Structures are given as structure tokens and as C-alpha cells.
Amino acid sequence: MTKGQYDHEPPDGYPAEYEADVVLRDGATAHLRPITPDDAALLVAFYARVSEQSKYYRFFAPYPELSDRDVARFTQVDYHQRLALIVTVGDEMIGVGRYEGTGRHTAEVAFLIEDAHQGRGLGQLLLEHLAQAARENGIHRFVAEVLPDNRKMITVFTEAGYKVAREFEDGVIMVEFDIAPTDTSFGVMQAREQRSEALSIARLLTPSSVAVIGASRREGTIGNALLRNLRDGGFPGRLYAVNTDTKAPEIEGVPAYPTIREVEDTVDLAVVAVKADMVADVVLDCAAKGVRGLVVVSSGFAEIGDEGRKRQRYLVGLARSYGMRVIGPNALGLINTASGVSLNATLSPLMPSKGRVAFFCQSGALGVPILADMVGRGLGLSSFVSAGNRADVSGNDLMQYWYSDEATEVVLLYLESLGNPRKFSRVARRLAGRKPVIALKSGRATQGVPVGQLVRRSHLPPESIESMFRQSGLIRVDTTGELFDVAQLLAHQPLPKGRRVAIVSNSDALTLLALDTMAGCGLDVAGDPRNLSADATPSDFGLALSEVFADDKVHSVVVIYTPPVQSNGGEVAQVLAAAAAGSDKPVVSTFLASRSVPAELQVPDEDGGAARGSIPSFLNPQYAVGALAKATQYAEWRRRSDSRIPDLPDIDTAGGEDFVAEFLQRHPSGADLDEADRQRLLTFYGISVLPAFPVLSADEAVDRAADLGFEVILKATAEQWRMRPDLADIWRHIHDEEDMRAAWAEMTHTFGVASDPGRAQFVVQKMAPPGVPVVISTIEDVSFGPVVTFGLSGVATDLLGDRSYRMPPLTTRDAAEMVREVKAAPLLYGYRGSDPVDIPAIEDLLHRVSRLTLDLEEVVRLDLRSVLVAAQGATVLDTRIRIAPNEKPRQDTPARRLT
Questions:
Q1: What are the N-acetyltransferase domain coordinates in residue numbering (predicted)?
Q2: I need a labelling partner for 431 at 20 to 30 A (CA). Which of 61, 232, 364, 673 fits?
Q3: Nearest to 197 by CA among 398, 489, 437
Q4: Pairing label, strands 381-386, 333-336
């Protein structure tokens, strides 16, 4: 709760972080927040609307009204051992859930939902948020008493994904379950999240009626353009023009009204094009009318500075509180080409043909040329959203919708920023497992964020975004042209089953270009290219094509056709189409330098467009092969069915959580851990560190080495020494006292501390088996949350940035790719005759570090700074860990919320 949002100040200790805008099962939105003493009247009014049966289910007895004592008890909570969360729509409370501690780690949980809103998923949402808050307050288990015929409440518990125990006692079902998140509960949450968020977008994309608020009859205005485009785009539903100054019965042939409240019929979608300071009043009018969603084209919000940001936050909070999602503000709009919808609620007069490609774009300025490019290529569109400032509806929401949208087979994303990278990665990975997702991210080099988009600024290098895209299975491209090239291929052709590509061409020069591009993209040539003469006949092409399509060693086919003086392109096209018909091998072409799907190579669909099986053409072989390479990489990612999050049964998560809580009691502001604390924390996650013992003199070094039985090292620990390649910071193979004294003398002299050995920062450590040194680290980024990195140890690696990045949790495939994708990886696999190291040991450490940083949000930095990987096993030699309160909680939490 924030000052100004309500008519009262939040009480002391009020946990504002528990507030959330949520999407209900039917796609509408609501606000969830902790209860306060000032909610007494709200609670009484809510309780009066609840049926007698629902009250009986809650209290197990007739309970017609709440006493003053009841109201005080229910609204006054400590937010730790006693917490109540309420759900509101507008000014009304529609549901409440609460827990009350009954023991050290146990609490009783109960819910009451207004009858008119039962069946909208409120109980499930409240349970998720109560469980998350309870875990943060040290509660591990929920119990509840439920009457046997209260099936709805029993379902809330049993379908939450927790392992629920039930007993029948004295006519009441006793329900009990641990509330620690599990793979099952995460899966349930994500499935519910996808369904509800998809429905919230469907409400925007499939309206039966649309009102343009700010419509104008004056040409050249935004309101006029929006109204014309909706009308001329063929929208079959009811269309209304709203303008406060109008007294005419119509504008541009569309029925007109002074306000949306005066429209006689229902209105599903409002397209808003009024001045920014009038938008809030429009939202209230739309709420009163029962509008389901808003497209705000108006500018004057976050893109203009602090005043606009405040206005934008208020707009989104107000709309969500009344159940509405918002596209924009400062948006270009949305398009849906589906039969029976034909909706063009944008500022662009271009209405692409119906197709199988969906597009999300953040930039309104780029949206118009993007639509023009799609129309020019003849690339059909299923739906399009340009979200402008992306204050509410984002690419995450659209991906949730397209996951289950049967009309969409390929998804395109133009991204300027990532508002919630963790959720983006999770949602994109799920979608990419079903449909290709092609992404163009601007600002990779500068990490810039466009004005108007309110996001947390990451401090990670651009390579982290590249790695996240690979981890999620996204097809990353660098230009809009490449974006459409790959889309053109994937919208019409099957995925390749391998990397071997056959070339059939009548141009030696273009064949060489194709071969060069294949070599750069990692594609393999299947046999020798079929180089035909410049005047090759259609039968020549037919013979060559029949050979490559019949060859099981060929996975994809590139066809290059340049016309002779007397072109017989139509006949060649017929031969190519016939040879490719029914084949499961993708075909790309450079056919008469066309940049689309030529009519001669089309398989018509029912709408007159190009169906699957049509053969796309590219301007030159480089573009064709580049698109094919992207499709091949994606197909390989899709085939990796062995990827899973491994079980680590020896991990003690509760022990780690208790350690962190105890550490923060000793260091409220956070601190670096000493060696003993580092070892203790890592032990909870099955990571052992070879002990290192600080020494301040030669005598102390000798004594410590003797205690260890010699065969030790003497190591300088100061960071500035570790980073000096010209200085040997480790003296190895110390066998006896003489060796140690010699090592001490030499190293103290080398590092310039011989005159004051008390300043020397040295440790004595047992020798580890020989191997290759690697580094595994994690950092808690304000935007991405926890990120795991891997690389080989050394100054050159640091300077070149040879690191791999992944966001936890890591699957087996993620860990394997992290090890293999660094450029220095050959050193791990027996480079120049050396012994290969224990790769599974590295992957195991990656999984353990990933799990630790995912479980313990307060571990803001963890470095396994020196891990020596031998032929058998890996030894952790040096670590650094910092624990601190996380001032900005992670954005992607186990409880569903809009961010």
C-alpha cells in the first residue's frame, strides 16, 4: 500500500511487498494486499454480501454478522504470525485469506470468498501468496479444518501441488501440508498463470465491440486514424466513436457519443486517444461501463519524466484495480486477423493478410515499417501488439497467449528492454518448446533502456542476455531483415533434422557464397554441390532435386536459380514444387532474387495465402543459408529431451536458510563471510573446500605444513597479486621445512614484503591433484536475479570475457552447455595430449551453486574462485561469499503476480 493510493496511512510494520496485482481465472485483474485496521467497514460490507452457506462453511455454525470484537480481531494482525490478505476490485473487497500461527513452524489457514466471485481462482491465488509470506516468516506447514461438503475448498488444497494429508475427525476433514515450493507446485502455478494471463490477452484481442475514445472527424488526427483503420479493416463487431465535444449522431459513419457511459450496448475494448491528463477519468468511465481492456495510444506518460511516470503508475494501478489490462500508453495498438475478428486497432492503415506469424513490438515508431515489411513480403500475420511504454501488458503476457493460440505457429519479438527477465526466460522457454520464437533485442551493446519503459537496470554484461536467449531456446537475430527471413522459413517449412545441407544451383558464384556462409554458420555440406550449368533445363533441376530429396544423408536443401536470357522460371518452379511436395526436409531458395514466397512456389491455403509446404525465396544465398542455420540450431535445441533439473538429495536447504538468518542477525547490513562461515554454508549444499590456513611468519608456515604432513603449497591471497601474471602467487610441492623456508623467503621478497613479513597475506594449503583451474560464480543482479557464470581461471580469460552465463535453475543441458561453450573449453578435453578432466564433476558443482543461489536470495555474491578439476574429481581451493539483505526482492516469485 502506498501513500495516496488509499485514504489512510498504512500501519507500522505493514508489508508493502505483499501487495500484488493479480490475474484471475477469467482473465480479469484484481488487487491483493494485507488487511489493515482501516478496512473494518470494507470487511463488514463484504461479509454482508456473503451467503449464509459460505459463512457456515467458514465458521462451522450460523454466523449471520460480525461483532465489533470480530472485526477488530480480523483486521488487526501482526503481519508475521497472524496475517490476512484481501482481494479487492475497485472499492469492494471480494475475498480474504488468513493464517494464524499455531506452533513454532505451523499455522492454520482459512478463506472466505464472496459467492458472486467464487470459481474465479481467488482461493488458489490467496493460498499461493499466504504460503509465500508464511515461508518468509518461518512457517513451514499449513493446517486447515474443512467441512466434508465444502468441495471447493478441499479442491483448493488438493490441487495446489503440495503433498496434502487428510484425516476425518469429529465430522471435519483435517488438512495438513508442507508449504515449501515443489516441482509439482511450481508446475501447477505456471499452468494456472499461463491460462489466466492468456485469457486476459484474449479479452483484448477478441472484442465484440470497440469504442474509440477521442475519435475525431478531422483528418490527420490520431483519433480519426484509429477510427478509420478499425472501420476500414473490416471489424465485424459494434464500433463506437466517443468525443466529449461531439453533438453529432455519428463520426465517419460510426455512432458517436459524448462519453462511453452513454453507449447503450456493452463495450469490450476501449482505444484511448485523449490528452494524458484526461486518461484517468476515461479509465473510471470505462470501469463503470464494464470495459474489459484498454489500448492507450495517448502520449505524455513515463516518456516525459517524473510527472509522466507518476501518471503512468496511477493509470495502470487504477485500471488493474477495476479488472482491466492496459496496452500502452504511447502504444501503436493491436491487430488480430482471425476470421470473424479482423481487428486493426492501430495507427497503421496497413492490415496484413491472415497468417501464422505473431508479432510483439515495444516500439511504436518501428511498428509501422515492420507492418509494411510484412505486407511487402506477403508474410501473413495472426496477431500483432505494439505496447509502447509497456506499463502493463508485456511480451511475457503475449507469449502466454500465443502458447495456446492455435492460429499462431511462429512468434516474433522486437525487444528494447526486459521488465522481468526471470519470468521472460521461463515463459519463453516453455513457449519455445512448442513453437519457434525469434527475437531481436536492441541496445545489447549499450544496455540502454528507452525513455518511458520503467525497468530495473542490469549491471550484467551483454553476453548474459545472449546466454539467456540460448538457454530459453530463442532464435536470436541481429536485424529486422533477418527476423523476417527466419520467420519466412519457419512459417512455411519443417524443421531440419540435422546439419547436412545439399545445394542445387545453376550459378557457380552464388554456390560459393552459399558454401562460405554455411562454413561460418556451422552447417555441413552433404556431398558435392549439384552445380548445373547456367542454361540448365527444368529436367536437369528435376534430376538433381530427386537425388538430394531421396538421399537420407541430406537434412536440408538450398536451391539457387538465376534466369538465363530466355527464362523458363515457371517450369523450374513446377519441378521444384513437385520434388519438395510431401518431403520432411526444409527447402530454401534464391529464386529469381525474389524476397517472399513466389506465386509459382506457393501452396495456397484456404484464405488465399501461402500454406505450409510453400517454398520461400531470399534475395541471395547468404540470407537463405543464414535463416536455415538459425532454424537448424533451434531444431537441435528442441530435440534435447534429456534436459532436466537433477535431484540433489544431500542438500539441506533448511539448514542453509537458518544459517543465513542467523548470519544476518549478527550482521544486519550484510558482510563477507570468513573461511569458517563459508565452509559451513557450502557444506549445506554438498560443496567441500580444501582448508587453507593463514600464516604470518616462516615459523608459523613450517608448523602448519608439518601439521598437514607437508606436500603443501604456499599461496599469496591479496587480490592484486592474484591478478599479476608476471608474479607466481603460488609455490607448489613443498616437501619439508627447508622447502617451506625457501618458499617463504622468495615469495616475501617477490611481493615486496620481506622487511615486514607481518603484512604478508599467505596461506598454507594441502596440495590438490593436478588439473585445470576453473571459476564458478554467482551474482544477484537487481534485474535478472541470480545468475551463474563459468570460465577457466586466468587473467586472459578475464580480459577476453570468456565466460558462460545461465539463470538458475539449471537443467542438465544448461550445465553441459555452460562448460562447452567457453572458447577455452578444449583445455578441459585433452588439449595437445593432456588428460581430459572430470566434466561431470564441474557440472555437479554448477548444479549445487545454482541451487544455493536460487534458494538463498540473500547470498548476493558467491565465487568458487579456484576449482582445480582433475581427471577424477574437482577440488575447491578458494571461495568468496557475501550475504546481505536483498533490498529489491526478486521479480519472479512462486506466487503469481503482475509486475
A1: 30-184
A2: 364
A3: 398
A4: antiparallel
